[in-house]
Amino acid sequence: MNNPILAVDIGGTKVAAGLVSRSGEILLARRTPMVPRGTSNEGLRAVFRALDAVRCHHRARRARSIGVSVPGWVDTRRGVLVSAPNITCWRALPLRRELENR
Question: For residue 1, is pLDDT > 60?
Fold first, then answer.
């Protein structure tokens, strides 16, 4: 297997994370509840719980890239989630930086 992709889908009610092959096959998937109306850090912790559940799997060691989807406006140059209507705890969140730091 070539290097898989770590994928995360951040929604208003759940965070789905997985490991996906280059051909699109889902190799591993985990879900955690999202905290859309809590604090910014509570929302990030929900994302990190889902990602960590995937990253601890031995197949994830080969992942060299990540794809992230969020339900809102993103400034792609700066890596900032400007706003997401159904995740009110996040406004001007530097999501790329938070993920890179993790």
Answer: no
